[in-house]
Amino acid sequence: MSKLKDSTKKILIHFSIILGLTIVLAFIFLQIFLPSYTNHGETVTVPNLEGYNYQEASKFLADRDLSYEINIDSGFNAEVKPFTVLQQNPRPGNQVKKGRKIYLTLNSRNAPLIRMPNLVNTPLKNAQEILANAGLIRGEIVYVPDIGQNVVLEQKFRGRNITEGFEIPKGSQIDLVVGDGLGNQILEVPRIIGMDETDAEFLIIGSGLRFGKINYIETDSVLSGTIIRQMPPAGSEVRTGEPIDVWISESKRFSNF
Known about the structure:
3 domains, alpha+beta, Trypsin Inhibitor V, Chain A, 16 strands
C-alpha cells in the first residue's frame, strides 16, 4: 500500500512539473517570442499616395518602412501625368505592420482605345451623357440650320467625321455639329387670323413652323378663342421651324354692382 502511495505521489509530482513547464513555455511564446516575431504594436499609418509620381511614392514608403508593388492593370486619366498613382491598397489612414506591401495603380502613359458610340440623331443632352460615360470629352458645339433643334447631326474627332465603332483614345475630345431647330428652307407664313387656337396650331405645325408666344386680348366683338393677330404676318417668308406669335381673343367679364 505504501509503495502505491509513493508511486502515485511521484506521478503527481512529475505531472505538476510538466504542467508548470508547459505554462511557462506558453507564456514565453505568447508574450515574448510571438510579439517579437510579428512586430506586435509596431504599426505605421498608410500615407495617401494618390497624385504622387511612383518614384516619389516609392521613396515616401521606404522612409516609413513600407514596400510597394505596381498593379499590372493600370488606369488612365487624361488630366493626370503618366505614372502618377491613381489608387492604392490598403487605403490611406489604415494601420499596418512595418514592411507591409502597398499595391499601387498607376496612370498609363498611353490612353486605352475605346469604340466611338453613335451620337447622330441623339438629343444634345443625351449625347453629352453618353460621351461622359464612355470616357470622352465633349468639345466644340457648332450649330447649323436644321429643323432638328439641339439634335446631333455629325460627330467629329480632330476635324474629321467618325462613325460608330471607330477606335479612338479614351479621353479624346469630340466636337458636335448640332441642329438649330430652324433649317434652311424658306416658307411662306399661312394666314391663321379668324381661326380658333386648335385649327391654327394644326396649320402652323403642318406648314413646318411652330407656335410661338401666345397672348390673350380681352374683347367683346370677337368670339372668344379666335386668332385676331399673328406675327410674322401672313405671306411673310421665314425659315423652317421659326415661331409664329399669336394673339387670341378673350371675352370681357363684367361685374354686377
